[in-house]
Design brief:
The protein is mainly α. The protein is built from nine helices and no strands. Helices cover 61% and strands 0% of the residues.
Length: 226
């Protein structure tokens, strides 16, 4: 499976989510006045007609070739709000390809790293897409639950604990301890430690967009919001 296909599958998930209803009927809660009923965020999803430069059209073309053009040419999913600056959206696609598709981490470590980044940014869309992928890659459900619930790492195997601790320190504490970094290098190598940074940063960027636009999930979709 190609890296971009993974992004596009998440976009398809977002389309299905968006089709399930509108506004407060979707979320089951009263939404703030600045939330768009179609996107469940502070900004609407953009359509192809809204993005006229060549780079923006290229991004739409990438999605169209892989998942088929949406009925109204709307871009949803992880790049839905990055496309407001098409050059950033294109750069994020390239970053994802480099960090995830061409990195040294195995699927197990990579998917766990993605979940940590999603947890630290409360990014529901990517979490809901990657939790099943993490299970398929061999991450134990108990480990996934620990990440989701911000639980203790006591009893977790060394390799998984190293990934979770690395991400929590980097994204939450904004300081990776010497011992944490040394353990990551020991287990994954120097390139692998830097790939942890790349993978987590890639997904954190998408999470930051979701934070900025206060993106909500429809009713019935899992959320990490408290």
């Amino acid at each position: 499976m190609t890296v971009r296909r993974t992004i596009l599958q998440l976009a398809a998930l977002a389309v299905a989510v968006a089709a399930s209803g509108t506004a407060s009927a979707q979320t089951g809660t009263s939404l703030a006045a600045d939330i768009n009923p179609g996107s469940l965020a502070r900004l609407p999803y953009l359509q192809r007609k809204d993005v006229t430069d060549e780079t923006g059209q290229q991004v739409f073309d990438i999605f169209d070739r892989t998942k088929g053009r949406s009925p109204d040419d709307t871009l949803t999913g992880p790049l839905a709000f990055a496309i407001y600056n098409p050059y950033v959206a294109k750069a994020l696609l390239d970053l994802h390809d480099g960090a995830v598709g061409k990195g040294t981490l195995d699927a197990h470590a990579r998917e766990l790293a993605i979940l940590v980044a999603c947890r630290e940014t409360n990014y529901d869309l990517e979490w809901n897409g990657h939790a099943p992928a993490a299970l398929k890659a061999g991450v134990d459900q108990a480990v996934i639950d620990t990440v989701r619930n911000d639980g203790s790492l006591a009893g977790m195997n060394e390799r998984d604990a190293a990934v979770v601790r690395f991400g929590r320190e980097m994204l939450r504490n904004r300081r990776v301890e010497s011992g944490t970094f040394a353990k990551a290098v020991e287990l994954f190598g120097e390139k692998g430690a830097m790939d942890l940074v790349a993978v987590m940063s890639t997904y954190a960027v998408s999470g930051f967009y979701a934070i900025a636009v206060d993106q909500h999930m429809p009713a019935g979709q899992p959320t990490m919001r408290k």
